[in-house]
C-alpha cells in the first residue's frame, strides 16, 4: 500500500516520511495554512529521492502559473483540487491527480467521467479545499467500479482508522495531512506510526 504525506512545509518532516515508506510528498501552493513557496519546496525536493512523487497541490490556478511553479520547484506530479475540467487537466505533460469531494454516489459519476488516471476521493469542502481532517462515508465508494482509475483516499485519515479505510475502500494510495499533525504542525512520531500501520497492513 502506498501513502502520500501532504502539506509538507519542512525538510525534516519530508525526510521522515520518506524514511518510513511514503511514496509521495505533497506541497500545497493554494490558499492554505500549509501553503509553501515554490522556492522553499525546491529546497525540500532537492533532498528527496528521485523516485518519490513530489506532488504540487493547486486550486483553480492558471496553467501558466502551474507551469512556472513546476519549473521553479521541481514537482513531478500535479494535483488539481478545485473545479478544473478534463480539458484543463489534459494540457499537462506531467501526471495529473484530480481531487473530488464525495458526499453521495452521484459525485462518483464525475470521477468516472474525468480523464485523469489518478483521482483523489476527499471529504466535502469547507474553508479550504482539503486538509479539513474529516472523513466521508466510505460505504459510498465500497465496491464501486472506477474503470481502472487509480483511487487515492483522503479526508480525515489517521492511525486509528486507516486500516479500516484500507479494508473498505482498497485504494491505490492513501493521502494524509492533518492526521499526522499536532497543533497544526507535522508530527514526526505520528508520521512514523501512520506509515508503520500501513506497512503492517500491506
3D architecture notes:
The chain has 202 residues and is of the alpha/beta class. It has one domain (2-201): Aldolase class I (TIM Barrel). The chain is 31% helix and 21% strand. The protein contains seven helices and ten strands. It has helices at 11-19, 38-45, 63-73, 86-89, 106-113, 162-169, 188-201, and strands spanning 2-5, 24-28, 53-58, 77-80, 96-101, 118-122, 150-153, 173-176, 181-182, 185-186. The protein has an eight-stranded parallel β-barrel with strand order 1-2-3-4-5-6-7-8, surrounded by five helices. Strands 9-10 form a two-stranded antiparallel ribbon. Strand 2 (24-28), helix 2 (38-45) and strand 3 form a beta-alpha-beta unit. The longest helix is centred in the C-terminal third of the chain and has 14 residues, at 188-201. The termini are close together.
What's the CATH architecture?
Answer: Alpha-Beta Barrel
The total number of structural domains is 1
Give the % helix.
25-40%
Q: Which structural class fits the helix and strand makeup?
A: alpha/beta
Strand/helix succession: EHEHEHEHEHEEHEEEH
If strands are numbered along the chain, what order do they take across the biggest sheet?
Answer: 1-2-3-4-5-6-7-8
Q: Would you count the extended β strands for me? A: 10
The outline comes out as: globular
State the low-pLDDT regions, or none: none
Largest sheet: 8 strands, parallel, barrel
User: What is the alpha-carbon Rg in Å?
Assistant: 16 Å
Amino acid at each position: 500500500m502506498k501513502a502520500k504525506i501532504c502539506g509538507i512545509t519542512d525538510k525534516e518532516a519530508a525526510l521522515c516520511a520518506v524514511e518510513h515508506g511514503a511514496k509521495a510528498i505533497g506541497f500545497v501552493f493554494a490558499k492554505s495554512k500549509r501553503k509553501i513557496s515554490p522556492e522553499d519546496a525546491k529546497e525540500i525536493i532537492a533532498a528527496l529521492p528521485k523516485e518519490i512523487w513530489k506532488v504540487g497541490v493547486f486550486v483553480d490556478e492558471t496553467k501558466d502559473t502551474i507551469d512556472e511553479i513546476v519549473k521553479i520547484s521541481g514537482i513531478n506530479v500535479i494535483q488539481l483540487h478545485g473545479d478544473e475540467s478534463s480539458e484543463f487537466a489534459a494540457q499537462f505533460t506531467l501526471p495529473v491527480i484530480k481531487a473530488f469531494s464525495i458526499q453521495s454516489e452521484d459525485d462518483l459519476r464525475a470521477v468516472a467521467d474525468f480523464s485523469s488516471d489518478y483521482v483523489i476521493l476527499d471529504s466535502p469542502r469547507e474553508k479550504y479545499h482539503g486538509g479539513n481532517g474529516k472523513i466521508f462515508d466510505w460505504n459510498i465508494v465500497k465496491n464501486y467500479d472506477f474503470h481502472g482509475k487509480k483511487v487515492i483516499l483522503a479526508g480525515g485519515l489517521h492511525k486509528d482508522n486507516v486500516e479500516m479505510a484500507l479494508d473498505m475502500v482498497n485504494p491505490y494510495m492513501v493521502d494524509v495531512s492533518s492526521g499526522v499533525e499536532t497543533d497544526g504542525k507535522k508530527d514526526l512520531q505520528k508520521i512514523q506510526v501512520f506509515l508503520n500501520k500501513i506497512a503492517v497492513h500491506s
